[in-house]
Structures are given as C-alpha cells and as structure tokens.
Amino acid sequence: MLTPKNKRLWQLPWGYPETVLTLIAIVMAGYALQASLGNVDFHYLHWPVNGMCGLILVVVILLLAVWLRSNPFILWFSGVSFSVGLLGALLLFTIVMGLTPQMETNGAAPHHLITKLGLNRMTTSWPFVLLYITLLLSLGTLVVRNMIPFRRAKYAFYLNHLGLWLVLFTTGLGASDLRRYVMYVQVKDNNPEWRVYNEKNEVLELPVAIYLEEFILEQYDTRLTIIDNGSGEALPKDFPQFVQLDSDLPKGQLLEWEVEVLAYIPEAVRTLNEAYEEIPMAGSAPAANVKITNTKNGQTKTGWVSCGSFAQLYRKIDLDSTRSLVMTAPEPKRFASKVVVYSQYANKPDSALIEVNKPLEHHGWMIYQYSYEEKLGKASPYSSFELVYDPWKKYVYFSFLLLAIGSLALFLQLKKRRGERL
Amino acid sequence: MISWDSFLYFAMPAIVLWVVAIVLILLKKPSRWYQAFALAGILIFLGYVVLYWISVQRPPMRTMGETRLWFSLFISVIGYITFKVWRYQYIYAFYLLLAIVFTFINILKPEIHSKALMPALQSYWFIPHVTAYILSYAMLGAATIMAIIILVKKEIDNERLLLSMDKMVYIGFGLIILGMLMGAVWAKDAWGHYWSWDPKETWAFITVCAYLIYIHLRLQPNRVQLSAWMLILAFVLLMVTWKGVNYLPSAQNSIHIYSKQ
After folding, report:
1. Mean pLDDT in each 10-residue stretch from start to end of chain B (261 residues)?
2. Residue A160 pLDDT > 60
3. Partners of residue A125 in chain B, C-beta under 8 Å
4. Quick one: pLDDT at residue B141?
5. What is the CA radius of gyration of chain A?
C-alpha cells in the first residue's frame, strides 16, 4: 500500500507503523490474559464449542469482507502490510519457541518467568493464540473479499490462500476433538483387551477391543566395533568405525586391527563348551566368531563376541587394557502385531496385521502400532497400540489437497503474470 | 560393492571438472566448452549417488552427509537448467561453486553411515518428503545467490534478474509446502497426528513464515532491497532448520535429528 509522505499516524489509509502498533497491542493484550488466566486450555473447546467458535469466526469474516469490503480499514487489515507484519510477529514468536525447550503440560517451576510468560508452551500461550485468531480473520477476509467477484485467473491465489486458511482452521479447531489412547495387549491373553490409558494415565474402557495373536519383531544384522572400556564409547571417538555383520562373513579394519568374521549366527545360544549354536528362541542373541590381527605387531586372537540379550550375557574380546572388541545391540527393522479387533460397531471381528506406518482403520478409529517391551525384544510379552479418534480428518485432508494443488500452481505462477517462458 | 569410502574417487573428478567449467566461464570461453565439463561432473556425481543407493539397500537420505550429497547434485543440475533458460554465466559459476563446497564438506566431514533404517522411516513418503525438501533448499539457495548479486552489484532495477529470483523462490516455496504436506500425511499414518511442533517442525514453520514475508514484500514494488535482505535472512533460517536443529538444546528429543551412526 502506498502511503502519502505527510500522513499522520492513525490517519487512513494505514501502513506499516499502524501495523506494528496494532500487533504490539494484540501481543500486550495476550500477555495481560496470560498473566491473569495462564495458558489457554483447549480441552474446553471440544464439539460443539469449537463448531460455535468456528461459526462465529466465519460470520465475522463474511461481515467484514462483504459489508465493509471497500472500507480502508478492511483493505489494510486484509492487505499486504498487515500480512507482512503478522507473519513477522509469528516469525519472532516461533523463533523464541524454536530456541526454548517446550513442555507438554504445566510441569516444573510454575513460578518461573518462562512458564509465566508461556514461552515453554508457546502454542497454548494467549499471545500466540490471539495472533492465530488474527491470522484467521485477516486471511479469511482477504479470501472472501477476492472471491467476490470470482475470477478464474486467480486460481492459484484462491487455492493457496483458501487452502492455508482451511488448514489452519480445521487443524486448530479439530485438535480439541482428537482423542488419543494407548492400549497394552498381552500376547494370547484369555480375553481381548479394551482398557486404555489416556494422556493423564487414567484407565478408561473403549468400545473397541483387541486380541493379540502374535507379536513379530525383525532386527537388523548388528555390527562390530572397538570401544573404550572406561567410557563405553565406540572408537575413534567422533568418527566411530564399524564392521557390518552379514551372512557373507565380511572382513574389515577397526583401528589397527584387521577383523575377519569366521562365523555369524543371528539367533544364537551359548553352549556348555563356551561356543555358540543356532537356536532360534526368545532369548537368543546374535553371536560371531572372529579372528583379529594386530597390523602393528602381527598378534592374532580368535574368539566369540555377542551383544547378549535378557537371557544371555554379552561377550567381548579384550584387545588391551583399555579397549575391547564388542558387538552392538541389534536395531529393530520391523515390528508388527497380528490382531483381531472386536467392537460395538461391527458384527464380525476384524483380523489384521498392524505395523509401524500401516495403521488399521476400524469404524472411525485408527489403530497404530505403538511399542513393545524393548528390553525383552522378540520375547516381549505385550504389544502396545495407540487408538486415535479424529472426526476432523477428512476436512483436514481436503484442505491439504487444496494447498497441494496451490503449491503446484506456484510453479507456473510468474510465467502467466509476466508472459515470459521459464 | 561401493561404499562411502569410494566417494573420494567420484567426488574429486567431479570437483576438478566443475572447477575447469568455472575457470572457462571466467575466461569467457564459448559456452559449449564449460557446459560439457559441468555436465561430465554432474554425470560422475549422479553415478556415485545411484551406485551408493544400490549398495546401502535403503534410500540414502538418512544422514546429514547423505542430504548434502543430494544438495550438491540438485544444485549442479538446477544451475545447468537455469543457465539453459536465462543464460547467466556468472550465476552458473556460483551454483557450481556451491556444489563444490558441499562436496568438499562431505569429503572432510563425512559423518558415519549404516544400513539400518528405523521402522518409522520405512514409508513410501520417505523419498518424496526428503527429496522435495532438498530440492527446495537447492532452489532457494540459488535464489539467495541472485539476491546477493542484486545487493552487491546494485541491480535493483534489473527486472529480468528479479523475475528469475522470484521464480526460483516460488518453485522452492511450492516444494517446501509439498514436502510439509507429505510429511503431515506421513506423520498421521505413523503416529496419528499431522504436526506436533517437533523442533524441526517449528523451524520449518519459521522458514515458511520468512519466505512468505519475502513473497509478500515483493508485491510492494519499491521494496526490492529490503526483499533481497529478507531472502538472505530466510536462507539463514533455512540453514538452521536443515543443519542447526541437530545442535539445539531444545531439539534433543526430535524425531528429525540426522542419524549419527
């Protein structure tokens, strides 16, 4: 917006000075609310309260954009200067947030200044919430003001601005309706489990029950490395070296030691004569028979190494007084649960395999593989699931779709506007 | 089998070819000469990325060093394409220099790599999510170079250069939003929420705000210089998002930390 040179402050049309002062006023109001009320509690905003708030917001936007569409104040409020200022304010707040460790609940040090100002729970602090509402109002007014009259040539503008508005609106208001519980199910228990824990660790009963037929854990092949006996750190300290184990019996170099793998058993159990044998079972652990040669003095050693498990001790080869050759603990490659899901919604139980990134949808509930008893690995007696109920999901996905098409439209944008080829 | 240890044998020839291309640009030699050298470098680099991907048996996008690998490749390719479109030799030389710098960092500070890919990362969203981001970083890096040239050479009236800079930002920003949306859908599939203000996500939000400020400032015609500065600041914030988050005390539990093993 171009402003006359000798314009006084608060004389319309407004520009950057008024933008900055308005935003400071909004933030101050936010801190006044923060000081008296503490952080915003979104739990009160569940349906239908969030629906009412959304409706009020939409009505206000329509009034501003239709009734006052050529009012200079509205032109400023939905204009470039104000949007730049508002984005700047959000930028500053999120930079503070990005540098301050964030807490999930009102935890430690309630009288600490950082907690009082809501800096460690930024997204529920009043100034941030007020900026979010201001953004919805300003952006919404801009969209509606430009929709009348509708122009096809502005398609990228509509997709991006309406898409973003819908993303902010649906995720913000929908957040309070999202229910999230964790369920721990014992393997082959007598009865299906329907008790869950909520975020406050309270036990609740759900209309959905799960029976766990089998828990499956696949692990990656482990690696050999040399550690410092004192610190337990892999050497060399900042660039640790590893020899990846696999069935091809690799050879490698760790520091001044040449490592030759003579045998590698992914599921091994230690036998009476101090060797290892392949016995796939819950407590088995990877083991390798290794020949190591010191390239400096030609000294060789042969022996077994194993990372151990809950049922077996680990085993290392001492290289000298300060260093040993060890095997790293295996990392999980895939974990999955074979389940049968029962519910009040369905007559027939639902058999499924649930794994990470492959949740099961059951009548509006999403069931995610959550965790297992990591210390016991394959022998974990239970598998845990996260059950999420999110009635706003389809609206959020619709807004994502608009924004995604809008982003693709950006690739062609300036080409049309200035008639040049890219 | 090709491993990270062989990187030097591909990187050095690529660097030498790119350096020759830069020298030829500075000596104002015919463009087909330096194009040939630059392309040869790109092909060698691409060859390494392909062979390395096959050898690690997982998408090589998990560690800082691997994302730098893609950045070098993308910026050299984008440099070539922008040169073909706009014919700015000197900007092309800058892109090649940037590719060389990132390749050098990878030689000097490779950061360790392993085969393991944790279950949460095993998704068809992994490759498009990371690729969209690294591609956008390269695009926005390219735009930042243009902003620096505009400020240093005082070219605020060079409409053609301004248009190229804006185009780069629009495409880079579109890619950031696509990367973000894919990440949100992926997170919903993996954990049941789109966005959890993980430190990397917070910094991605910061980056998006910064580029949105640039895009909107550019709608006001008399703010070219301020816009150029904003673009540089935005890229600094982008670098924090890409690299800095790993070192922030607020990010020690982030799911987006690059693997150190």
Report:
1. 82 95 91 93 95 86 84 90 84 88 82 69 86 90 93 88 92 95 94 89 96 96 93 97 82 70 46
2. yes
3. none
4. 93
5. 31
Extents of the domains making up chain B: 117-260
Tokens of A86: 């508002």
Residue from the list B120, B174, B249 with its beta carbon closest to the beta carbon of A101: B249
Chain B contacts of A105, Cβ < 8 Å?
none
Which helix (H) or strand (E) segment is B4 a member of?
Answer: none
pLDDT value, residue B143: 94
Residues of chain B numbered 23-52 and touching chain A (CB < 8 Å): none
For residues B99 and B76, what is the distance between their CA atoms, to the nearest angstrom?
Answer: 6
Closest C-alpha among A92, A336, A85 to residue A219? A336
Kindly list the residues from chain B whose CB atom is less than 8 angstroms away from the CB atom of residue A331: 116, 118
For chain A, give percent helix, strand, coil, nearest 5: 35, 30, 35
Please name every residue paired with A59 in a beta bridge, in sequence order, or none if there are none. Answer: none
Query: In this structure, what are the phi and psi dihedrals at residue A332, rounded to the nearest 5 degrees?
Result: -65, 135
Q: For residues A11 and A182, give the distance between their C-alpha atoms in angstroms, rounded to a whole number.
A: 57
**CB within 8 Å: A94 and B205:** yes
A365-375 pLDDT tens trace: 999 999 999 88
Least confident range of A36-50, A120-134, A176-190: A36-50
B-interface mutation test, from A20, A23, A87, A337, most B Cβ less than 10 A away: A87
Considering only CA atoms, which of A158, A136, A137 is closest in space to residue A147? A158
Output the pLDDT for position A419: 40
Do strands A350-355 and A360-362 pair parallel, antiparallel, or not at all (unpaired)? unpaired
User: Are the C-beta atoms of residues A142 and A161 closer than 8 Å to each other?
Assistant: yes
Residue whose C-alpha is closest to residue A203's, from A187, A181, A185? A181
Q: What are phi and psi of A294, to 5 degrees?
A: -80, 115
Which helix H or strand E contains A140, and what residues bound it? helix A126-147
